[in-house]
């Protein structure tokens, strides 16, 4: 079966409800995107504890693992996993449906009105998915960490970023996060019906400001370790 036939079959299998419609799945992408960007923003703020030293950072990590008698982190993990799963499902099925609707493709790609970030959403999203798996194996399970100590998240943070290749991958992944977030924040407000010429510059400003803040601060972490500022 060709890609087009597979996706037509998939679209038929999805039926005619809200989630089968492309608008419904765009709303799913927007709502789950907000949950994920919200997490990334809070996570970036939480990690600033690293600038306050080992005691603060380890106390913060300990709080995350023990809140609500250890159940809190599992509530967050289930929400994040569900949001990420639905986000990828909506992205993949929308892409397949678009291909099925236009199996031959445009002879010359028209980029009018699009940005580099919007055209590369599938690439930045895929690199982010790879990064998230690596990141969990690096700092949560320690599987790919050079000397992981479950009792000392601060030491894991510092020793993890002392490896230049790891620090470099984090920086590249944060640049992809920036592209994904900049277009994603802009576009989710559109999917939720908040676009209006009067508010467009506000939406653009919000997307740019939040992205620069999250990516800018996140990139400082590996650089601060390599520069010996966090040690
Ligand atoms: C340079 C930027 C980042 C740093 C320094 C960082 C640092 C960390 C650290 C140290 C942990 C482990 C905490 C612990 O075990 O106590 C962690 C967990 C995690 N991080 Fe990040 N992170 C960064 C960016 C990101 C990004 C961009 C995402 C998502 C796109 C992300 C998603 C997660 C997730 C899902 C967890 C696992 C939470 C859990 O235990 O379930 N991180 N991060």
Automatic annotation (TrEMBL):
Is this entry keyworded Iron? yes
Please give the SUPFAM superfamilies that the UniProt record associates with this protein. Answer: Fumarate reductase respiratory complex transmembrane subunits (SSF81343)
Q: Membrane spanning segments where?
A: 27-46, 74-96, 126-145, 165-185, 206-230
Work out whether the entry's keyword set contains Metal-binding: yes
Primary location: membrane
Q: Which residues form a coiled coil?
A: none
Pfam families reported in the protein's UniProt record: Sdh_cyt
Subcellular location(s) of the protein: Membrane
**Keywords, sorted A to Z:** Heme, Iron, Membrane, Metal-binding, Transmembrane, Transmembrane helix
- Extract the InterPro entries matched here: Cytochrome_b-558, SQR/QFR_C/D, SuccDH_FuR_B_TM-su
Cite the NCBIfam families for this sequence.
Answer: sdhC_b558_fam
Question: Which protein is depicted?
Answer: Succinate dehydrogenase
